Fold this sequence. Notes:
The protein is 57% helix and 0% strand. The chain is built from five helices and no strands.
Amino acid sequence: MNMYKVEQKRSKLGFWLEQHNKDTDWLTRTTGIERKIIEELASNPNKNPRMIAIRKILYAVKRVDPTIKVSDLWDM
């Protein structure tokens, strides 16, 4: 029986989370942003967050990778 890996749609944020072995629950806990919003941002490459969410996410992400920039996570 062949098992195929289903390719998940990911945004740059989603790819970053995978590369650093972090999940959306970690980002939800560290930012205080609702899980639904974080999951949408991680899976939909066309979704751009509001500025307050960008600041919270960058603050959390910079604890893991201090060299990260907004352009590494979203096309703005």
